[in-house]
Each structure stands twice: as structure tokens, then as C-alpha cells.
Amino acid sequence: GNSVTQMEGPVTLSEEAFLTINCTYTATGYPSLFWYVQYPGEGLQLLLKATKADDKGSNKGFEATYRKETTSFHLEKGSVQVSDSAVYFCALIAFTGGFKTIFGAGTRLFVKA
Amino acid sequence: GAVVSQHPSWVICKSGTSVKIECRSLDFQATTMFWYRQFPKQSLMLMATSNEGSKATYEQGVEKDKFLINHASLTLSTLTVTSAHPEDSSFYICSARDKTILYNEQFFGPGTRLTVL
Fold first, then answer.
1. What are phi and psi of A69, to 5 degrees?
2. Which of A38, A76, A101, B26 could be disulfide-bonded to B3 (CB atoms 3.0-4.6 Å)?
3. Structure confidence at residue B19 as a pLDDT band (50, 70, 90)
4. Which candidate from A45, A93, A104 shows the least CB-CB separation from B104?
């Protein structure tokens, strides 16, 4: 079945450090890929998305590229801020999954000043 | 942009009572809505898929008599937690699928925190 695997957290970085959160997926067909962010006590916000191979999603300095050959969608940011501290979820939607969103386990990011 | 609201945002109830949570798509029609449950520091667990005008499809292990879902219109789905108990305390999040968007992105509500005493 369809699944998403992302790196375990927590990830602790100093402000202005480079961020990478790895995400790989298993899916039949051509899924759409997403990164969501959840701030403490809040719901999910869509951070970025990519709907086909080689697409790059970007938003607020974050970016991720849909790599079909490696079935990956790693999240990156060149310089993190304290305000980026949150939980990040990688997710996919596939036709073969009945269009259900399949989430990774989430990666908690702490950014220190 | 597409907005999904939930009401209430938080609720505290006594054990044995029932609680209804509403999920509304404010500016689009949602033929399908999804209900998730999230325990502290965990990922979202899909509970059920709600289709307008038909019965909800529940995921394995989710009690349909415990979690009643009604999708009465293209903009409203409700989740009723019947005879709630402390173990039902959780963060409940709904999402809605805009049928006009090709890649089937879902839009998430802000969540409802349920605490059962």
C-alpha cells in the first residue's frame, strides 16, 4: 500500500542553520506530494506541494523537489528561524489510495536563538 | 483560498455525554470530507471518509457506532462522539476535498480539541 517515511525527530538547530528533513514514499502510480506544518496547539497548514516528477514546491524559504527516481520529497531551508519551530508532516495523495491523504509520522523541529 | 472551519475549537464534556463537531467548507463545495484524530506528539490517523449524501467509510478499527459521521450537504460534515469517555480525548481534525482541483489537494480545518472528564 501507499506509505510515507520521514526522518525521526526531534531535530534541533541553531538559528540560521541549514535544514533538511528527509521524506521518502511508496505509492502506486503518480501521487501528489505535500509538506504540512503544525504549530503548537494548531491545525495543519499546507507549506508546499508538488504534483508531478521534477516539480519543485516552495514557500516561505522552504523548498522540496519531487524526485520520482528516488521516490523522495526532502524538505530544505537555507536559514531557519526560531519561528520555524513546529512539526512538519510529509504526505501524499494517490488515486490508488482513494485520494486519502497518507501522512508521515511527523518531524519536530526546534530552532534555538 | 479554500477555507475549512471547525466548530467548536475546543470542548470539555463529562464522561457519558455526546459531543458534535462541525466541519464546514466556506468557499468551495466538498464532495468528500475526511476526519482525523491526532494524539499528542503523534501523526494524524484517518478515522473515516465522508461522502455527501452517502454513508461514511470507516477505517479499520474505528467504531462506527461510537463516531457518527453525517455529511448532509456539500459544505458540512459532522462528527458526533457518542457516550464519550476519557480515552476519546484527542485533537480531531477534518479536511475537505475540493472537487474542482485536479490534484485532489485537501484543505484542513483548524482542529477541535476534545477533553472528556
1. -65, -30
2. B26
3. very high
4. A93
Closest CA to B6 of B16, B19, B17, B14: B19
Interface of B with A (CB under 8 A): 6, 32, 34, 41-44, 46, 49, 93, 95, 97, 102-111
Give the C-alpha separation, B45 to B35, whole Å: 9
CB–CB of A99 and B104 under 8 A?
yes
Chain A residue numbers touching B95 (CB-CB < 8 A)? 101
Question: Is A100 close to B110, i.e. CB distance below 8 A?
Answer: no
- B103 pLDDT band, cuts 50/70/90, is low
Write the CA distances from A81 to A44, A78, A112, B58, integer angstroms. Answer: 19, 10, 8, 40
Each residue of A15-51: pLDDT tens digit?
Answer: 999 999 999 999 988 899 999 999 988 888 999 999 9
pLDDT class for B104, splitting at 50, 70, 90?
Answer: low
